Each structure stands twice: as structure tokens, then as C-alpha cells.
């Protein structure tokens, strides 16, 4: 259908070919990075939540950290800086992870809390809160008749989840959200069976990560090696941000086929990510 064709063209417009990217299947296991002495390089470790600390589930509200992930995070946080950067609302991701004394960023970094509880919010993004609320209401009206579609209104975003929708209705969902983005001057991003609106600002997980690293440096941390674990297209910004001086690690999956990524290492599941985290904590304590 025409809406579907428009959505496909829009998707192709977003694809950029970058030198140095490799296919997911070609990446070496991240446990090799541990063997190569990562623990001796003073890591600061950043995690995505959905698909990295938690399995991807049909109902986003049912997502929980995989067995062992919370304990591994707590263990690691006692030995080095730890942060969770999520597309979820800040309060939501804090509640789901529940580990104290770490950094949390919600809405792809538009709001953060530091380990001491200090709250930081992007003022320019806050100006879009009303527009996002209106966009969420309109999209619920437009997409409410499509079975399996969930429109999630977040403080700094609107996400349309279509994992449970019929494949012949997906183009309609994509087209509606893209039209809303054009109408309301909002940025459109895509992920694993989700399309999202957010404030049209030059801010993402990569810039959030560098902001946290700068903050740690200013607090006297000394040199740090940033490590980022993520699974989705929105995590590529963070992979890019750590590629030169850190360790970008993809948590593999099959949702996007064998896509290209800026990551340099991979883990095969959130369970393996929890194992990696636990082993790194053990090495740091040694």
C-alpha cells in the first residue's frame, strides 16, 4: 500500500553506509576483551536496558532484568562507575533495575540522575513535553484500531510498539508516526519493532555517555575506558562515542537480520551480558 511504500522509502533515507562497520555475526566474543586486560584499563561501564539487561518481551511493561543481572551490576558498581542509559522514562528504568549508587539516564539521555541522587534534565527537551503529549493522544486515536499496536507516552518521547501487530499493518504504523513527526517538528527514530518520536535536538545516548565521562573526569576520576553494552539501533550512537577510546559491545539478536554495527565485540544474549558483567567485577576485585 502507499503508506507502506512511503515508510520503506523513509527507512532507506535513514540508512548510512559507514566505513569500519562490521556485520553482527562477524564480531568476536566480548569475553576476549576481558582476556585482553580490560579490567586493568579503569573501565566505566554503560548499559542499555531492554535487550541488554533484560530480554525483549512482547509486553514492554513485563520487562525485568535477567537472572543474575542485578547482582552483577551491584558487584560491578562497587568497583567502577556504572550507568544504565535507556529509552524508557527515567523513573521507569530506575524502578526496573533498582540498583543504588549508579548513574541512570532515561529518554535516551534527556534526563539523568547521578549516584548521589542529583537530577539533571535537558531544558530544551523539556520545552517539547506538551507537544509530545498531544502527539501521543493523536497517535492513540489513529492507531487504536490496529490490533497489537501499543502507543506509549513517555515524558520525553512517544513510542509505537508493533511487535505484536500483523505484518501487513506495520507500514501504516510507521507512516502515521513519521507524519506526526513532520507535523509536530519532532525527531523520528526506529528500533526493534518500535518507532519513536522525541524532541528534535542533537542529543542521544552517545552524547549522554560522553557527558557522564566528562562529569566523572571533573570529579577527579582520572583516565577511564568507556565500555558500552547495547543491542539496538539507538545504541549505535553510543558505540560510535566509545569506538576510539573504549569498548563497544553489541548484545546480538535476530530482529534486524545480520545488520552492520559500530560495535567491536558481541555477546549472544542478556544472560551472557550478565555473565560478562560478573566476570569483569571479579577481575576488578582481583
TrEMBL record:
Keyword set, alphabetical order: Hydrolase, Magnesium, Metal-binding
BP GO annotations: trehalose biosynthetic process
InterPro entries named in the record: HAD-like_sf, HAD-SF_hydro_IIB, HAD_sf, OTSB-like, Trehalose_PPase
Annotated Gene3D superfamilies: HAD superfamily/HAD-like, Trehalose-6-phosphate phosphatase related protein, domain 2
MF-aspect GO terms: metal ion binding; trehalose-phosphatase activity
NCBIfam families referenced in this protein's UniProt entry, alphabetically: HAD-SF-IIB, T6PP
Designated name of the protein: Trehalose 6-phosphate phosphatase
Source organism phylogeny: Bacteria, Bacillati, Actinomycetota, Actinomycetes, Mycobacteriales
Gene from which this protein is expressed: otsB
Amino acid at each position: 500500500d502507499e503508506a507502506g511504500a512511503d515508510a520503506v522509502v523513509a527507512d532507506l533515507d535513514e540508512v548510512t553506509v559507514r566505513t569500519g562497520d562490521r556485520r553482527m555475526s562477524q564480531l568476536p566474543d566480548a569475553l576476549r576483551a576481558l582476556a585482553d586486560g580490560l579490567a586493568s584499563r579503569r573501565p566505566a561501564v554503560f548499559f542499555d536496558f531492554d535487550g541488554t539487561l533484560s530480554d525483549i518481551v512482547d509486553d514492554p511493561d513485563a520487562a525485568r532484568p535477567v537472572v543474575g543481572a542485578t547482582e552483577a551490576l551491584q558487584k560491578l558498581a562497587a568497583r567502577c562507575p556504572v550507568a544504565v542509559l535507556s529509552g524508557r522514562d527515567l523513573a521507569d528504568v530506575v524502578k526496573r533495575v533498582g540498583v543504588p549508587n549508579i548513574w541512570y539516564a532515561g529518554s535516551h539521555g534527556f534526563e539523568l540522575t547521578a549516584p548521589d541522587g542529583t537530577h539533571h534534565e535537558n531544558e530544551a527537551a523539556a520545552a517539547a513535553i506538551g507537544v509530545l503529549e498531544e502527539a501521543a493522544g493523536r497517535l492513540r486515536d489513529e492507531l487504536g484500531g490496529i490490533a497489537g499496536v501499543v502507543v506509549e507516552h513517555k515524558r520525553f518521547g512517544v513510542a509505537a510498539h508493533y511487535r505484536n501487530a500483523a505484518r501487513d499493518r506495520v507500514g501504516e504504523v510507521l507512516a502515521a508516526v513519521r507524519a506526526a513527526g513532520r507535523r509536530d517538528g519532532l525527531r523520528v527514530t526506529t528500533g526493534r519493532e518500535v518507532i519513536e518520536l522525541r524532541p528534535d535536538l542533537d542529543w542521544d545516548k552517545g552524547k549522554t555517555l560522553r557527558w557522564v565521562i566528562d562529569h566523572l573526569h571533573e570529579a577527579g576520576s582520572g583516565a577511564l575506558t568507556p565500555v558500552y553494552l547495547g543491542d539496538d539501533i539507538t545504541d549505535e550512537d553510543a558505540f560510535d562515542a566509545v569506538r576510539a577510546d573504549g569498548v563497544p559491545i553489541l548484545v546480538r539478536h535476530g530482529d534486524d537480520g545480520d545488520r552492520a554495527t559500530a560495535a567491536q565485540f558481541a555477546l549472544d544474549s542478556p544472560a551472557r551480558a550478565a555473565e560478562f558483567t560478573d566476570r569483569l567485577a571479579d577481575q576488578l576485585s582481583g
